[in-house]
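Batch 3, record 17
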Amino acid sequence: MNSIIIYDGSFPGLFTALYDIYLLKINKPIIRSRFDQNIDLFNQEIRITTDTEKSEKVLAKLQKLIGVSRLQKLYKVFLSEDPQAENLIIQYCMIAINDDIDKLSDFGNLVVSRIEKIVKMVGREPSHESVHPFQGN
Amino acid sequence: MKRVYYSGYIPVSDDSRLPALDSEVPMMRENRLYQTDWLVRFYGFDVREILNDHHQNLDMDIDPKLSWALRNMDQFPVDVNLAPKHLLQRIPGVGMKSVGKILASRRVRKLNWDNLKLIGISFNRAKYFITCDSRQNFANNIDPFKLKNILLSQSKSKYAKHFNQQLQLF
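Prediction for the assembled complex:
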Protein backbone atom coordinates (compact mmCIF):
# COMPACT_ATOMS: atom_id res chain seq x y z
CA MET A 1 0.00 0.00 0.00
CA ASN A 2 1.29 3.42 -0.94
CA SER A 3 0.72 6.55 1.02
CA ILE A 4 -0.86 9.46 -0.71
CA ILE A 5 0.23 12.79 0.67
CA ILE A 6 -2.21 15.61 0.13
CA TYR A 7 -0.85 19.12 0.46
CA ASP A 8 -2.37 22.53 -0.08
CA GLY A 9 -0.76 23.23 -3.47
CA SER A 10 1.70 25.87 -2.26
CA PHE A 11 5.49 25.79 -2.45
CA PRO A 12 5.97 25.84 1.34
CA GLY A 13 3.26 23.19 1.55
CA LEU A 14 5.28 20.91 -0.68
CA PHE A 15 8.33 21.21 1.54
CA THR A 16 6.22 20.67 4.66
CA ALA A 17 5.18 17.45 2.95
CA LEU A 18 8.85 16.54 2.46
CA TYR A 19 9.47 17.20 6.16
CA ASP A 20 6.56 15.00 7.16
CA ILE A 21 7.63 12.21 4.80
CA TYR A 22 10.80 11.89 6.82
CA LEU A 23 8.99 12.45 10.13
CA LEU A 24 6.49 9.67 9.41
CA LYS A 25 9.11 7.51 7.64
CA ILE A 26 7.03 7.05 4.50
CA ASN A 27 8.85 4.98 1.90
CA LYS A 28 7.14 5.57 -1.41
CA PRO A 29 5.08 8.72 -1.14
CA ILE A 30 2.72 9.92 -3.84
CA ILE A 31 2.13 13.64 -3.63
CA ARG A 32 -1.15 15.24 -4.60
CA SER A 33 -2.43 18.73 -4.40
CA ARG A 34 -5.72 19.15 -2.55
CA PHE A 35 -7.18 20.48 -5.80
CA ASP A 36 -6.65 17.10 -7.41
CA GLN A 37 -10.09 15.52 -7.43
CA ASN A 38 -9.07 11.91 -8.01
CA ILE A 39 -10.15 9.71 -5.15
CA ASP A 40 -8.08 6.63 -4.48
CA LEU A 41 -9.81 3.99 -2.38
CA PHE A 42 -6.95 1.57 -2.03
CA ASN A 43 -4.23 3.81 -0.70
CA GLN A 44 -3.83 5.52 2.60
CA GLU A 45 -4.34 9.27 2.47
CA ILE A 46 -2.36 11.64 4.65
CA ARG A 47 -3.28 15.30 4.79
CA ILE A 48 -0.46 17.72 5.41
CA THR A 49 -0.96 21.04 7.17
CA THR A 50 1.37 23.66 5.77
CA ASP A 51 3.81 24.83 8.40
CA THR A 52 6.23 27.59 7.39
CA GLU A 53 8.59 26.65 10.21
CA LYS A 54 8.98 23.15 8.81
CA SER A 55 9.23 24.28 5.20
CA GLU A 56 11.86 26.90 6.00
CA LYS A 57 13.90 24.28 7.83
CA VAL A 58 13.71 22.01 4.80
CA LEU A 59 14.54 24.83 2.37
CA ALA A 60 17.54 25.91 4.43
CA LYS A 61 18.79 22.33 4.55
CA LEU A 62 18.24 21.82 0.82
CA GLN A 63 19.96 25.08 0.00
CA LYS A 64 23.01 23.87 1.88
CA LEU A 65 22.79 20.44 0.26
CA ILE A 66 22.02 21.13 -3.40
CA GLY A 67 22.64 24.87 -3.72
CA VAL A 68 20.52 27.81 -4.80
CA SER A 69 20.66 27.17 -8.55
CA ARG A 70 19.17 23.69 -8.25
CA LEU A 71 16.57 24.98 -5.83
CA GLN A 72 15.61 27.57 -8.43
CA LYS A 73 15.25 24.75 -10.91
CA LEU A 74 12.87 23.00 -8.54
CA TYR A 75 10.83 26.16 -8.24
CA LYS A 76 10.58 26.36 -12.00
CA VAL A 77 9.39 22.76 -12.07
CA PHE A 78 6.85 23.66 -9.40
CA LEU A 79 5.52 26.44 -11.63
CA SER A 80 5.42 24.22 -14.69
CA GLU A 81 1.90 22.81 -14.15
CA ASP A 82 3.24 19.42 -15.16
CA PRO A 83 0.98 16.75 -13.60
CA GLN A 84 4.02 14.93 -12.23
CA ALA A 85 5.80 18.07 -11.01
CA GLU A 86 5.26 17.58 -7.26
CA ASN A 87 6.31 13.96 -7.31
CA LEU A 88 9.40 14.76 -9.34
CA ILE A 89 10.45 17.50 -6.92
CA ILE A 90 10.03 15.23 -3.91
CA GLN A 91 11.87 12.36 -5.62
CA TYR A 92 14.68 14.71 -6.65
CA CYS A 93 15.05 15.97 -3.09
CA MET A 94 14.96 12.41 -1.75
CA ILE A 95 17.77 11.41 -4.10
CA ALA A 96 19.84 14.31 -2.75
CA ILE A 97 19.04 13.49 0.87
CA ASN A 98 19.16 9.68 0.81
CA ASP A 99 21.78 8.93 -1.80
CA ASP A 100 24.40 11.28 -3.01
CA ILE A 101 24.40 14.80 -4.42
CA ASP A 102 26.52 13.51 -7.30
CA LYS A 103 23.50 11.52 -8.43
CA LEU A 104 21.77 14.79 -9.29
CA SER A 105 24.15 15.15 -12.24
CA ASP A 106 23.25 11.70 -13.53
CA PHE A 107 21.25 12.56 -16.64
CA GLY A 108 20.63 8.88 -17.27
CA ASN A 109 18.31 8.98 -14.25
CA LEU A 110 14.63 9.30 -15.13
CA VAL A 111 13.85 11.87 -12.43
CA VAL A 112 16.88 14.06 -13.15
CA SER A 113 16.41 14.08 -16.92
CA ARG A 114 12.68 14.82 -16.57
CA ILE A 115 13.42 17.72 -14.21
CA GLU A 116 15.96 19.14 -16.67
CA LYS A 117 13.45 18.84 -19.49
CA ILE A 118 10.73 20.66 -17.58
CA VAL A 119 13.17 23.40 -16.52
CA LYS A 120 13.99 23.92 -20.17
CA MET A 121 10.30 24.05 -21.09
CA VAL A 122 9.60 26.64 -18.40
CA GLY A 123 12.76 28.56 -19.35
CA ARG A 124 11.30 29.17 -22.79
CA GLU A 125 8.57 31.26 -21.19
CA PRO A 126 10.27 34.61 -20.62
CA SER A 127 8.00 35.68 -17.77
CA HIS A 128 9.59 33.01 -15.58
CA GLU A 129 13.15 34.18 -16.18
CA SER A 130 13.81 35.80 -12.84
CA VAL A 131 12.00 33.45 -10.49
CA HIS A 132 13.43 33.00 -7.06
CA PRO A 133 12.05 30.43 -4.63
CA PHE A 134 12.22 32.78 -1.67
CA GLN A 135 10.54 35.75 -3.31
CA GLY A 136 7.84 33.87 -5.16
CA ASN A 137 4.30 32.87 -4.24
CA MET B 1 36.66 37.44 -35.52
CA LYS B 2 34.18 35.49 -33.49
CA ARG B 3 32.06 33.85 -36.15
CA VAL B 4 31.16 33.88 -39.80
CA TYR B 5 27.74 34.11 -41.40
CA TYR B 6 26.96 32.32 -44.64
CA SER B 7 24.36 32.98 -47.24
CA GLY B 8 23.49 31.08 -50.38
CA TYR B 9 23.47 33.15 -53.56
CA ILE B 10 20.23 35.06 -53.92
CA PRO B 11 19.60 36.11 -57.55
CA VAL B 12 19.23 39.89 -57.83
CA SER B 13 20.04 40.86 -61.39
CA ASP B 14 18.99 39.62 -64.83
CA ASP B 15 22.52 39.90 -66.21
CA SER B 16 23.14 36.85 -68.38
CA ARG B 17 26.45 36.09 -66.67
CA LEU B 18 24.70 35.54 -63.34
CA PRO B 19 22.40 32.66 -62.38
CA ALA B 20 18.86 33.26 -63.66
CA LEU B 21 16.46 35.28 -61.54
CA ASP B 22 14.23 32.31 -60.81
CA SER B 23 17.07 29.99 -59.74
CA GLU B 24 16.57 28.68 -56.24
CA VAL B 25 18.68 29.80 -53.29
CA PRO B 26 21.02 26.89 -52.42
CA MET B 27 19.74 26.34 -48.87
CA MET B 28 21.41 22.97 -48.53
CA ARG B 29 24.83 24.43 -49.27
CA GLU B 30 24.28 27.13 -46.67
CA ASN B 31 23.27 24.53 -44.10
CA ARG B 32 26.29 22.32 -44.79
CA LEU B 33 28.64 25.30 -44.47
CA TYR B 34 27.20 26.14 -41.06
CA GLN B 35 27.47 22.51 -39.97
CA THR B 36 31.13 22.42 -41.00
CA ASP B 37 31.78 25.75 -39.29
CA TRP B 38 30.32 24.36 -36.06
CA LEU B 39 32.44 21.22 -36.30
CA VAL B 40 35.59 23.30 -36.61
CA ARG B 41 34.67 25.81 -33.91
CA PHE B 42 33.14 23.62 -31.24
CA TYR B 43 33.78 19.94 -31.97
CA GLY B 44 37.56 19.98 -32.30
CA PHE B 45 37.68 19.04 -35.99
CA ASP B 46 40.39 20.28 -38.29
CA VAL B 47 39.22 21.56 -41.68
CA ARG B 48 41.66 19.14 -43.32
CA GLU B 49 39.79 16.24 -41.75
CA ILE B 50 36.50 17.30 -43.28
CA LEU B 51 37.80 18.50 -46.63
CA ASN B 52 41.04 17.30 -48.22
CA ASP B 53 42.43 16.04 -51.51
CA HIS B 54 40.53 12.77 -51.27
CA HIS B 55 37.27 14.40 -50.29
CA GLN B 56 37.00 17.77 -51.94
CA ASN B 57 33.32 18.61 -51.52
CA LEU B 58 30.82 18.42 -48.69
CA ASP B 59 28.16 15.77 -49.19
CA MET B 60 24.69 16.94 -50.08
CA ASP B 61 22.83 13.99 -48.60
CA ILE B 62 24.61 13.52 -45.25
CA ASP B 63 26.04 16.00 -42.77
CA PRO B 64 29.81 16.51 -42.55
CA LYS B 65 30.15 14.82 -39.15
CA LEU B 66 28.47 11.64 -40.32
CA SER B 67 30.47 11.83 -43.52
CA TRP B 68 33.73 12.02 -41.56
CA ALA B 69 32.65 9.12 -39.35
CA LEU B 70 31.83 6.92 -42.36
CA ARG B 71 35.25 7.65 -43.87
CA ASN B 72 36.96 6.86 -40.56
CA MET B 73 35.16 3.77 -39.35
CA ASP B 74 38.41 2.56 -37.73
CA GLN B 75 37.83 5.18 -34.99
CA PHE B 76 34.56 3.55 -34.00
CA PRO B 77 32.83 2.15 -32.01
CA VAL B 78 33.52 4.54 -29.14
CA ASP B 79 32.89 3.31 -25.61
CA VAL B 80 30.86 6.11 -24.04
CA ASN B 81 31.84 5.03 -20.55
CA LEU B 82 35.58 5.26 -21.17
CA ALA B 83 36.31 7.47 -24.17
CA PRO B 84 37.88 10.90 -23.63
CA LYS B 85 35.87 14.03 -24.44
CA HIS B 86 37.42 14.69 -27.85
CA LEU B 87 36.32 11.26 -29.07
CA LEU B 88 32.78 11.65 -27.72
CA GLN B 89 32.52 14.89 -29.68
CA ARG B 90 33.09 13.00 -32.90
CA ILE B 91 30.17 10.60 -32.59
CA PRO B 92 27.46 11.44 -35.15
CA GLY B 93 24.20 12.11 -33.34
CA VAL B 94 25.87 13.29 -30.14
CA GLY B 95 26.03 17.06 -29.70
CA MET B 96 28.02 19.17 -27.27
CA LYS B 97 25.20 19.26 -24.72
CA SER B 98 24.94 15.48 -24.76
CA VAL B 99 28.72 15.19 -24.43
CA GLY B 100 28.54 17.32 -21.28
CA LYS B 101 25.71 15.22 -19.89
CA ILE B 102 27.51 11.97 -20.69
CA LEU B 103 30.66 13.20 -18.93
CA ALA B 104 28.67 14.26 -15.85
CA SER B 105 26.56 11.10 -15.72
CA ARG B 106 29.24 8.52 -16.24
CA ARG B 107 30.98 9.57 -13.04
CA VAL B 108 27.91 8.30 -11.20
CA ARG B 109 26.90 5.25 -13.20
CA LYS B 110 27.76 3.03 -16.13
CA LEU B 111 25.63 4.24 -19.00
CA ASN B 112 23.45 1.85 -20.98
CA TRP B 113 21.17 2.46 -23.97
CA ASP B 114 18.23 3.60 -21.82
CA ASN B 115 20.40 6.15 -20.03
CA LEU B 116 21.73 7.45 -23.32
CA LYS B 117 18.22 7.87 -24.68
CA LEU B 118 17.26 9.86 -21.57
CA ILE B 119 20.35 12.03 -22.01
CA GLY B 120 18.93 12.90 -25.40
CA ILE B 121 21.41 11.65 -27.96
CA SER B 122 20.10 11.00 -31.44
CA PHE B 123 19.85 7.29 -30.77
CA ASN B 124 19.00 5.97 -34.23
CA ARG B 125 22.12 7.51 -35.72
CA ALA B 126 24.55 7.28 -32.82
CA LYS B 127 23.90 3.64 -31.93
CA TYR B 128 26.05 2.36 -34.82
CA PHE B 129 29.08 4.25 -33.53
CA ILE B 130 28.82 3.50 -29.80
CA THR B 131 29.33 0.71 -27.35
CA CYS B 132 28.03 1.06 -23.83
CA ASP B 133 27.22 -0.94 -20.72
CA SER B 134 24.83 -3.30 -22.48
CA ARG B 135 24.97 -6.63 -24.26
CA GLN B 136 23.03 -5.25 -27.17
CA ASN B 137 25.50 -4.07 -29.73
CA PHE B 138 24.69 -2.25 -32.97
CA ALA B 139 28.23 -1.55 -34.09
CA ASN B 140 29.43 -4.79 -35.64
CA ASN B 141 31.76 -3.68 -38.38
CA ILE B 142 29.05 -2.59 -40.76
CA ASP B 143 30.28 -1.61 -44.18
CA PRO B 144 30.19 2.22 -44.36
CA PHE B 145 28.22 2.21 -47.64
CA LYS B 146 25.58 -0.08 -46.17
CA LEU B 147 25.44 2.01 -43.03
CA LYS B 148 24.97 5.19 -45.03
CA ASN B 149 22.04 3.61 -46.84
CA ILE B 150 20.49 2.42 -43.60
CA LEU B 151 20.79 5.87 -42.06
CA LEU B 152 19.46 7.61 -45.16
CA SER B 153 16.43 5.32 -45.33
CA GLN B 154 15.66 5.97 -41.65
CA SER B 155 15.97 9.70 -41.68
CA LYS B 156 14.01 12.34 -43.46
CA SER B 157 15.74 15.67 -43.83
CA LYS B 158 13.72 18.83 -44.07
CA TYR B 159 16.09 19.78 -46.87
CA ALA B 160 15.40 16.56 -48.77
CA LYS B 161 13.87 18.43 -51.70
CA HIS B 162 17.21 20.20 -52.21
CA PHE B 163 19.20 16.96 -52.44
CA ASN B 164 18.63 16.55 -56.14
CA GLN B 165 21.26 18.62 -57.90
CA GLN B 166 19.85 17.83 -61.35
CA LEU B 167 17.69 20.46 -62.94
CA GLN B 168 14.09 19.45 -62.96
CA LEU B 169 11.89 19.94 -65.99
CA PHE B 170 8.60 20.31 -64.15
